[in-house]
């Protein structure tokens, strides 16, 4: 088979179905399932960028078909507690856990036209998120294997750009 014929076959086999999926699938249908945390980049108003969970973050985000979600994110450096009892963490250990991880859950809705998620947080390891207005996420990429979105303004005043990969069954 000639190289050009092979390229055409690959295009039809892989790219056309992905394009068709993106055009026919709703955002809500596309996000349902489990996603593994790949990266997050923070950006301040002055352009300063950072990686709040480091270069090898850990985490999962799950969306259910009935509008529920759960999220856990951490750096790869969350320390073990010396006492092996979370109720007896030292102040330094507790601070490191808080600094290196976050979890929250609640309900979500999708604005299909704007490609936005609205997260109503019902529980969190960072309780300041409760009772606040719904958290907005602007979807920048949605394919069968990748989800990327921006959080335009966190409580600390930064914009977050987060990438997720579809979790594969174990």
Give a brief description:
The chain is an alpha+beta fold and 170 residues long.
Kindly describe this structure.
By secondary structure, the protein is of the alpha+beta class. It has a single domain, classed as Lipocalin (Beta Barrel). Helices cover 22% and strands 40% of the residues. It contains three helices and nine strands. It has helices at 3-24, 27-31, 91-100; strands spanning 33-43, 49-50, 58-63, 68-74, 101-111, 116-124, 135-142, 146-151, 159-166. An eight-stranded antiparallel barrel has the order 1-3-4-5-6-7-8-9. A hairpin with a 5-residue loop joins strand 1 (33-43) and strand 2 (49-50). The radius of gyration is 19 Å and the shape is globular. The two termini are 36 Å apart. 11% of the residues are buried. The model is unreliable at 6-22 (pLDDT under 50).
CATH class: Mainly Beta
The coarse overall form would be globular
Mean pLDDT: 86
Number of strands: 9
Tally of alpha and pi helices: 3
Order of helical and strand elements: HHEEEEHEEEEE
Strand content: 35-45%
- CATH architecture call: Beta Barrel
Structural class designation: alpha+beta
| Arrangement of strands in the largest sheet | 1-3-4-5-6-7-8-9
How would you characterize the largest beta sheet?
A: 8 strands, antiparallel, barrel
- The number of distinct structural domains comes to 1
Please bin the fraction of helical residues.
10-25%
The whole-angstrom Rg is 19 Å
Distance between the termini: 36 Å
Query: What is CATH's topology name?
Result: Lipocalin
**What are the segments in which pLDDT stays under 50 over at least 5 consecutive residues?**
6-22
